[in-house]
From TrEMBL:
<keyword id="KW-0378">Hydrolase</keyword>
<keyword id="KW-0472">Membrane</keyword>
<feature type="domain" description="Glycosyl transferase family 28 C-terminal">
    <location>
        <begin position="193"/>
        <end position="291"/>
    </location>
</feature>
<feature type="binding site">
    <location>
        <position position="275"/>
    </location>
    <ligand>
        <name>substrate</name>
    </ligand>
</feature>
<dbReference type="GO" id="GO:0016787">
    <property type="term" value="F:hydrolase activity"/>
</dbReference>
<dbReference type="Pfam" id="PF04101">
    <property type="entry name" value="Glyco_tran_28_C"/>
</dbReference>
<dbReference type="GO" id="GO:0016758">
    <property type="term" value="F:hexosyltransferase activity"/>
</dbReference>
<feature type="binding site">
    <location>
        <position position="172"/>
    </location>
    <ligand>
        <name>substrate</name>
    </ligand>
</feature>
<dbReference type="InterPro" id="IPR007235">
    <property type="entry name" value="Glyco_trans_28_C"/>
</dbReference>
<protein>
    <submittedName>
        <fullName>Pseudaminic acid biosynthesis-associated protein PseG</fullName>
        <ecNumber>3.6.1.57</ecNumber>
    </submittedName>
</protein>
<feature type="active site" description="Proton acceptor">
    <location>
        <position position="17"/>
    </location>
</feature>
<dbReference type="InterPro" id="IPR020023">
    <property type="entry name" value="PseG"/>
</dbReference>
Length: 363
């Protein structure tokens, strides 16, 4: 089975879309699929990471800054080129290939782009979590749907098979392995995890770290994790080296282990939210992008996370007090751990079912 994945990473887009596609690609490869990525060489494209994972990546050229981009979707600028140029360039890369499935994980792509590619591919699968545009696809995955099973019915063809909700979150194998070693999250907070994604331009990591240091809790260890593309990483490393209870990590491969060892986390919305939930890790969250706001608000109301609001409303000063209270409130943390883990309880089985459905598309 030949699978191609159209996804981008960049300083603007972040790394979350690419990371979840890599997770899916690994699962499909284990089932015998040949998986190839198609990515544009934006600033911060992370194509080297795809290479490191032993996948072929076909590269679209770096965007010309002079392009006038038609607003086909609210995120059209993420393509870096007009949608029809992107579609034609993708067609050129696919020429001569047999494509059983084209997977698209891109907020800037909608049904017009997909129709342009339809005659070259046997099936199209879309990964989305916005539901703000139409799609011409055969499968659609949105793991963020919690209370609206009809969210996509007017946006996809009648035959499209939907995989909706946290039970379809794309988790790496390491999370399932760590789950088996989990103990009940009770007792005092002895270790905190701080992580705000692979890029973190606004340095939310330092904001969280400064609030933690203000508490002067030398009895609590803190793991501070950043991505290789984080422009603040050197400064953050220098801060961590000044304290024996701070541990700096860059571009880790053991995130699940760090989450299992933590008693509390501070981070952003997005893909990592579901990883923390699966391991029942109580977390203070603020949204760092507009597309994170809705799901963070909903999870906050469900008491699955402790949501403080949008990025511009959370300062170091406003964070310190709720962090102190959260550390001291064991009962709140226990309840949050149980609620978040319960949200993901069917993930392993349901995700495997989805993989089986995908593989059947290859005949």
């Amino acid at each position: 089975m030949n699978v191609f994945i159209r996804v981008d990473a960049s300083n603007e887009i972040g790394s979350g879309h690419l990371m979840r596609c890599l997770t899916l690609a690994k699962k499909l490869r284990l089932q015998g699929a040949n998986v190839t990525f198609i990515c544009r060489e934006h600033i911060g494209h992370l194509c080297n990471l795809i290479d490191e994972k032993k996948f072929t990546v076909l590269k679209l050229p770096t965007p010309n800054k002079d392009w006038e981009l038609p607003l086909l979707t609210p995120h059209s600028n993420w393509l870096g080129v007009p949608w029809f140029i992107d579609a034609e360039e993708t067609r050129s890369l696919l020429h001569g290939h047999s494509v059983d499935l084209l997977i698209i994980d891109h907020y800037a792509i909608n049904d017009k782009w997909e129709r342009t590619l339809k005659d070259m591919v046997k099936n199209i699968m879309v990964i989305d979590d916005l539901a703000d545009r139409k799609h011409q696809c055969d499968l659609l995955l949105d793991p963020t749907v919690l209370n609206d099973s009809n969210r996509y019915r007017a946006l996809v063809p009648p035959h499209c098979k939907l995989f909706l909700g946290p039970s379809y979150v794309l988790l790496r194998q390491e999370f399932y392995e760590e789950k088996y070693q989990m103990k009940l999250r009770t007792g005092l907070v002895k270790r905190i995890l701080i992580f705000f994604g692979g890029f973190d331009h606004t340095n939310e990591t330092e904001k969280a770290l400064s609030s933690f240091l203000e508490l002067a809790r030398n009895d609590i260890e803190a793991d501070v994790v950043v991505g290789q593309q984080n422009i603040h990483k050197h400064k953050l490393k220098e801060i961590c080296e000044q304290y024996s209870n701070l541990h700096f990590h860059c571009q880790v491969n053991n995130m699940a282990t760090l989450m299992r060892h933590a008693d509390l986390s501070i981070g952003a919305g997005g893909t990592t939210t579901w990883e923390r939930c699966y391991l029942g890790l109580p977390t203070i969250v603020w949204s760092i992008a507009e597309n994170q706001k809705f799901i963070c608000e909903l999870l906050g109301k469900m008491k699955v996370i402790k949501y403080l609001g949008e990025i511009h409303t959370v300062s170091q000063a406003s964070l310190t007090k709720p962090l102190k209270k959260f550390i001291e409130n064991e009962q709140e943390r226990i309840e949050m751990s149980q609620l978040s883990a319960a949200l993901m309880k069917d993930n392993f089985v349901n995700l495997q079912t989805m993989i089986e459905v995908i593989m059947k598309l290859g005949g």
